[in-house]
Structure prediction request, 582 residues.
Amino acid sequence: MLLSLFIHFSTPSRCLPIKTCKRCCQYSTGRNIHKVDTPVLLKNALPLTFNRSGGHGGKQKYIRLNSSQKRCFSSECDEVCHHHEHGEVRVRFAPSPTGFLHLGGLRTALYNYIYAKKYGGSFILRMEDTDQSRLVPGAAESIEDMLEWAGIPPDESPRGGGQYGPYLQSQRLSLYSQAADSLVQTGKAYHCFCSQQRLELLKREALRSGQTPRYDNRCRHLRPDQVEEKLDQKVPHVIRFRLESGVEPFNDLVFGWNRHEVAQVEGDPVVMKADGFPTYHLANVVDDHLMKVSHVLRGSEWLISTSKHLLLYRALGWKPPVFGHLPLLLNRDGSKLSKRQGDIYIQSFQRSGALPEALLDITTHCGSGFNSNRVGRKMEELIAEFNPSKITTHSALLDLDKLAEFNKIHLQQRIDDAVQRDWLVRDLQGRIQEVYGTQVQDQDVLQPDYITRVLHLRKGHISSVSDLVSSEYSYLWVRPSFSDQQMAALSSETQHIATLVIRLMEGLKGGEELTVDQLSVELKTLAKKTSNTKYRDVMKIIRLALSGLQQGPSVAEMMVSLGPSEITHRFNRVLQQLSRQH
Prediction:
């Protein structure tokens, strides 16, 4: 979309009529195409002014941009210009395998994946497993499994490899040591020999006097000979980064201009622990640089640490990536999505029959960053409609009560798609065997044709394939049982009705497909052939014989699902049961 604008530069003597493209951040004056110089747009003290009234003639009205207008105008340009400046777009999702993947993590991974695919880039999975004491066995493998299940597979990962590996931080320790040593050599970091007891004492003193605990930078002032002596004596030590004042502001893709003067509120942070493992701050900077990450999209809880990371980039002489901090994902009532809430883990959604695309849809629906907001979007639509400038700073409130509705819509789409339907059939086959096992007397119920028929008939009525293995649908897979008393209570004509149903099925066995409409008519005709049983009670008898239940889908639909031979089999059992009674 081209906007006709005038941009007034302070140096030329006249206004240039231009066309500015919001998508590629370029403007054209006459025949020439120029790229907007974002530093001028964002940092120049002389603000750009706009005129929407067009034409060279007439009075020009210039509008000074306030900061929010600058943010609004520049945001789309920024992210695409940043994309050009950094060459290939490379983004990463870097979870810690101290737990399994939950909805908050999935949301972060999803936005990174969509960003990469929108701009033809790469999506990297990196495991931040440096906190060895808190690692959960199997979590790293499970995180990668869940990303693949969710339809957001990484292009580079611990499992799949890639040219910038290894992708496990625990296998990159020498790289962090080299970076820490270079910081020490250039005077940007120093060895700290303070004992745990001393640090604990500092913390207690600060809390007692109502201050925020912080390291007092004591070892910063050690003389070189004191450091050498302690190193020779093998005194345990960490490496701390020397925080400097004068942090440069950075333009966050979501939150706009930001800076945190960390040196005023924090002590010098540890970058290398005594066990030789790095802290998050050093490891993520080293990895993002060496893996050529162009854009860091992460949770807004890291916004306050970004200035510290930028100081590290500057100290190491590296160009930082572009940062974008995503607002928090919260419960509908504004409370935190607790990681201890069992039901927010992706594996539990998978087990309960939630479809991955429904999870992705509800997670993006409650958030922001898209040109439209509607239910039922698939991945290609999410990518097409993604617009980073529309990501808002306020938290996304997730209403999981609506997941069933999202799932129902996506389930309908899957049932209508031949390839996706095969996936559903296989999933349901596994669930039937898991729930009913040896109770399944007729293996034909596991046949794809039978399951496909059931899915088509129940489409729009069920929210998940797991609904179909609940007790109300057990009749589809297991032959029901019912007592003689139940049958007798409904009519004295049960035997006659059973015979009529068997005859009806024999007449319909010619190979033609049964339909609900056709059977509804046939059943009304059948009911008229009884002497003293009302239509409603005839339906109750047929329902009981077919399902052992007193409610459920229409009798006609039940019959179409089961098919003539199974219906005949079940009514023959009714006749046998009645003959034993006599």
